[in-house]
Amino acid sequence: RFDNVESRTGVDISPDAIALARKTNSECKFYKTSLEKYKTKEKYSLVTVFGQPYFYTDPVVFCSKLPDLLEQGGSLYIAVLQPSQDQIDGEEIQKLHDDWWRFTDPLVSHVGRAPDTRFFKKFFEPYFKKIEITQTYMEFHLVMTGFTNIHNNV
Q: Is the dihedral of CA 36, 154, 120, 29 positive or negative?
């Protein structure tokens, strides 16, 4: 929770995820749509990406939308699913080709694109003054601060 944030907005394609989030964020505005279809003129100081929504779409199209949501000096947090070598090609995780993966849980099998952290770092480097990457079990966490809408490499 971010109690000191003036305006909070949630965007998700899952009505179940929105219902769950509403339980602890009643003051938040929620939209049941994909990020690619979400339209707003509002700019945010912080944008967070959880649950690998880029997995089900073109990661370039998905990432291209994120800078449009940030105010000057804003921050972006992305959790990137990236299995370790010992988790690949087991029953739960198979690398199919390039950045395409199959993740199987007890209920369903998911097939989609999961680019590695190098893709995200390279994509966002022109926009941010600082990018930090940390790792947990199956995820890398990219924390990008100092957003500028003027590309640093121009």
A: negative
